[in-house]
Design brief:
Elements (H helix, E strand, L loop, with lengths): L7 H19 L19 E6 L2 E6 H10 L4 H7 L4 H11 L7 H8 L2 H11 L2 E3 L6 H13 L6 H7 L4 E5 H35 L32 E10 L4 E10 L6 E7 L10 H9 L3 E5 L6 H8 L11 H19 L4 E11 L1 H9 L6 H7 L11 H4 L17 E7 L8 H5 L6 E6 L7 H11 L5 E6 L9 H5 L8 H4 L3 H19 L12 H7 L6 E4 L4 H12 L11 E2 L36 E2 L2
Parallel strand pairs: 1-4, 7-8, 7-9, 9-10, 10-11, 11-12
Antiparallel strand pairs: 1-2, 3-4, 5-6, 6-8, 12-13, 14-15
Helix pairs in contact: 1-8, 2-4, 5-7, 6-7, 7-8, 9-22, 10-20, 12-13
């Protein structure tokens, strides 16, 4: 009896799972370490794809032959017909894409608490042939692939899977994809809410109040028309490096201090906190810029969460990217720094007018100095879902639950304004602590940030702020790393690939320079004429197509939720080639048991199954 055409749901399953498989194989890999020698183990021979009562199979050798020679054999032929030629070529390239990390680094990360949480999550989808979670098998396969001369590629991970077969649990996979789809929809809805608010604010702003308008008639006399805040200022400066030793905490760390050449007045002060695994050079470009405009800028290095700590992790000298105590030590580093600056540069610095800026974990640090305290009650509530959450920043935030639950008093009254770039804050502070901040706040958010997602970590927290002077800056197409000096200069322990840094980091650097200068001039050095640059119109004025820029001063929770709900009910256009859409491709006609017949296992055919479509998504052709 001739085999019936494959059902549309089968087509969707095949296409989506094959496209997602390489990413799942390498999605766990982050830099890290522990010495491990290769061990000879059983290698997987087949991939089984389970979807309810349907079970499909594909020999791994068919993928190997296609990756190596570009040949589609009989086994792969059935699947190949669901793809366009360019998609097949992309699959071939992905299968051979190599991650240049050592087996020591892979092993070290996968044995950290954060690595094990990710392994459990992926292990729900990638299982052994016996339907057991793939936790241990995936870890072994990743380490063995990294130790193999062929390197850490998705194809080599499949080869090293230590059971006869790799089983893909598509039911669980679709659930995760649905969660990701919902998150994408909500994030795009939130971005739409920010953009709508920006348009409303632009229409309400009078051009006569905008100092950047080209016409001198529209410019206040004390700000030259057409001033470019992204350009260096007129002042020269010198850089000094100090080594600070806080004996009370047995903590020694270096600080670079940029001192402007001023005469007759003390310089207002800006302190900058780097992100996890980074160092004080991350924002050296910003320090030079601010110093040329009259600010003294200090960039400390946090010894428990800097690039040296990351290198120690990679070298097997530590098992943690950052100990939980860093959530307390980082703000205390900054407070100790301010004390030492006052003592070292007495009379040269205005220590009563200080601003703070930080990125990622440094963004958390900046908000803590501005008055937000660790919210243990909120952490206990949110961190119960850490094993299933798509918010990767919880892996860092929830570590604070290992601290003694006391009032740490991390704020500092010398801080008059704070900028947090891609901060992690939603759970460790929550609404109650964010709403308690009294000083002016500027939050930077990147639409393509997967480490500190824009919606949960910046857009929602912005709606919680009650301080009257607050700003949300959204950089569309930017990532978590777009504002880092390493993204452009190639410094740092782990080099940031261009596709991770996002499009043209120099554009993002310019935004940070201009807006931080205007913000700190307004709220730290008390030059109110610069407030004319802190609005949606100026953001629109300096915005560039490669990273569109949006700035708003107001957004309520009700506004945000209303637009998210409206957007979720409508199709979301694809912003990038890799975004998913809520459709399924038509089923091509399949007849008989020829070369392209579906490889169902005996007794497990899909003929006549009226399976409903899941709420999941198919890759955009």
């Amino acid at each position: 009896m001739p085999r019936q055409p494959a059902s549309p749901i089968t087509n969707s399953v095949i296409k989506r799972l094959l496209l997602s498989l390489p990413g799942l194989c390498l999605g766990m890999v982050l830099p890290s370490v522990t010495t491990l020698m290769p061990i000879r183990v059983l290698a997987a021979e087949k991939i089984f794809i389970s979807y309810g009562p349907i079970q499909l199979s594909l020999p791994i050798s068919a993928l190997e032959e296609y990756a190596r020679e570009g040949k589609i054999n009989q086994d792969l032929g059935f699947y190949a017909q669901f793809f366009k030629p360019e998609q097949l070529e992309q699959l071939r390239k992905i299968l051979q894409t190599r991650a240049n990390v050592s087996p020591v680094a892979v092993a070290q990360f996968l044995y950290t608490p954060q690595g094990e949480i990710l392994l459990r999550r992926v292990g729900e989808v990638i299982q052994t042939k016996a339907f057991q979670p793939g936790f241990y098998a995936i870890r072994a396969a990743l380490i063995q692939a990294a130790a193999d001369p062929a390197g850490l590629t998705p194809l080599n991970v499949l080869r090293k899977f230590p059971t006869y077969a790799v089983r893909i649990n598509s039911d669980r996979g679709f659930e995760i994809i649905d969660e990701l789809s919902n998150l994408i929809e909500k994030t795009q809805g939130a971005i739409a809410a920010v953009e709508q608010e920006a348009l409303a604010e632009i229409s309400a702003q009078s051009s006569t109040q905008l100092p950047f308008q080209p016409s001198p008639m529209a410019t206040p006399s004390n700000i030259p028309a057409g001033r470019d805040l992204q350009q260096p200022g007129p002042l020269s400066w010198e850089m000094q490096t100090l080594t600070l030793n806080d004996l009370s905490r047995s903590r020694t760390f270096p600080v670079d201090v940029y001192l402007p050449q001023l005469s007759g007045r003390a310089a207002p002060v800006i302190v900058i906190s780097h992100g996890l695994g980074s160092d004080r050079l991350s924002y050296a470009y910003l320090a030079r810029h601010l110093a040329s405009h009259g600010f003294a800028v200090a960039l400390p290095e946090h010894p428990g969460s800097n690039s040296q700590q990351l290198q120690a992790l990679i070298s097997g000298l530590t098992s943690d990217a950052a100990p939980p105590s860093e959530a307390v030590d980082r703000p205390l580093d900054m407070k100790y720094l301010l004390d030492q600056l006052a003592a070292t540069y007495r009379g040269r610095l205005d220590m009563q007018n200080v601003g703070v800026l930080g990125q990622s974990f440094g963004g958390y640090t900046a908000l803590a100095l501005a008055g937000a305290e660790i919210n243990f009650e909120n952490l206990e509530k949110d961190c119960t879902a850490i094993n299933s959450s798509l918010n990767l920043s919880l892996l860092l935030q929830c570590r604070a639950l290992l601290l003694p639950q006391i009032d740490y008093q991390l704020g500092d009254d010398r801080i008059k304004a704070a900028i947090a770039i891609n901060p992690v804050d939603s759970s460790i502070f929550g609404k109650s602590e964010m709403s308690g901040i009294k000083v002016p706040i500027m939050l930077f958010s990147s639409s393509n940030d997967t480490a500190a997602p824009a919606l949960s970590e910046q857009i929602k927290p912005f709606t919680w702020l009650t301080t009257p002077n607050k700003y949300l800056v959204l950089m569309k197409k930017a990532t978590h790393f777009s504002t880092l000096g390493e993204a452009f200069e190639g410094t740092g322990v782990v080099k940031i690939p261009p596709q991770v840094a996002g499009p043209n980091p120099v554009t993002a650097f310019g935004y940070v320079k201009a807006l931080s200068l205007a913000f700190f001039k307004t709220y730290v050095s008390n030059e109110p004429e610069y407030q004319g640059y802190l609005n949606a119109s100026y953001a629109q004025y300096i915005s560039r197509d490669e990273i569109p820029l949006v700035l708003i001063e107001s957004l309520t929770e009700e506004q945000l939720q209303g637009i998210i709900n409206t957007s979720a009910a409508q199709p979301i256009p694809s912003p990038t080639p890799n975004t998913f859409r809520l459709t399924s491709p038509p089923s091509p006609p399949l007849q008989g048991k020829g070369r392209n017949s579906p490889p169902f296992l005996p007794g497990e055919g899909a003929e006549g199954l009226g399976l409903p479509y899941p709420k999941s998504i198919a890759p955009t052709p």
